[in-house]
Specification:
The protein has a 6-stranded mixed β-sheet, sandwiched between helices. It has a 5-stranded mixed β-sheet with strand order 3-2-1-4-5, with helices on one face. It is 37% helix and 25% strand. It has 2 domains: 2-81, ATPase, nucleotide binding domain (Nucleotidyltransferase, domain 5, 2-Layer Sandwich); 91-240, 2-Layer Sandwich (Nucleotidyltransferase, domain 5). The chain has 249 residues and is α/β, with parallel strands linked by helices. A hairpin with a 2-residue loop joins strand 2 and strand 3 (21-29). The chain has 7 helices and 11 strands.
Length: 249
């Protein structure tokens, strides 16, 4: 069994694969104060399958050693950490290549393997990332913007009286409460941001690109934006499985 781990800024997702089948999935908050013992307690009883291989994509290097220590102790396995120099079957045009987030590389790889080229791969989480892969399997570039929760948190951080709010779509744009007004501004405004950015990307490259979305807010955004073709909530985990299979052959 393969354990695939996607360590993100807000949440860490773990998936257990029996060959290509995702048989179990767990999500835990990402904590930079974790140690291996605490991680073991959090995951106790949640993974019952025997694990003989582990692959990790991490954008939080502060916790990499914690997961590595836990995995070696728990499963007697040395995990593979995704890096830019693995064989993704893509030409990576970011400069420098090592600055590219491994989650973005895995998502681009997975989108190409599952849906083909050309495509735009969107991830909607703590940050929004858009990456473009052309017909030659060149990862030609993309963009990064704050995620919806990050925008809402910034209002709380940078103002004296505005509260931090849950991300929820109000029924109407005009709201008569502070919480509702923030939700409307962040959520409805974000839909416009996504539509505009995807439109500009398509103008620069090719209007006939398939748009693949993943991440915690992908479904909500896809329902309210006309430019997203596919929502794939397990894109990163499945990409890790496919990448592990590729580098083992």
């Amino acid at each position: 069994m393969l354990l695939a781990i996607d360590i993100g800024n807000t949440n860490t997702k773990l998936g257990v694969f029996d060959h290509e089948d995702l048989t179990a999935k767990i999500s835990i908050p990402t904590s930079r104060d974790l140690n291996a013992d605490t991680l073991g307690k959090i995951l106790s009883g949640k993974i019952s399958q025997p694990i003989d291989a582990v692959i990790i994509s991490s954008v939080v290097p502060e916790v990499d050693h914690v997961f590595s220590e836990f995995i070696k102790t728990q499963y007697d396995v040395t995990p593979i950490f995704v890096s830019h120099d693995l064989d993704f079957g893509l030409k990576i045009n970011y400069q420098p290549p090592e600055d590219t987030g491994t989650d973005r590389l895995v998502n681009a790889f997975a989108a190409v393997e599952k849906y083909g080229t050309p495509c735009i791969v969107c991830s909607f989480g703590t940050a929004m990332t858009l990456d473009v892969v052309n017909d030659d399997r060149d990862l030609i570039g993309g963009l990064i913007a704050p995620g919806m929760k990050t925008l809402a948190a910034a209002l709380k951080l940078k103002t004296s009286k505005l509260p931090e709010v849950e991300i929820s779509k109000p029924d109407s744009v005009i709201q008569n409460t502070t919480v509702g007004a923030i939700q409307s501004g962040v959520v409805h405004g974000y839909f416009g941001l996504v539509d505009r950015l995807l439109g500009e990307v398509k103008k620069e490259v090719d209007d006939d690109l398939q748009v693949i979305a993943t991440g915690g807010f992908a479904a909500m955004i896809a329902e309210n934006c006309g430019c997203i073709d596919v929502v794939d909530k397990d894109l990163t985990l499945e990409g890790l499985q496919r990448l592990h299979a590729r580098i083992q052959t």
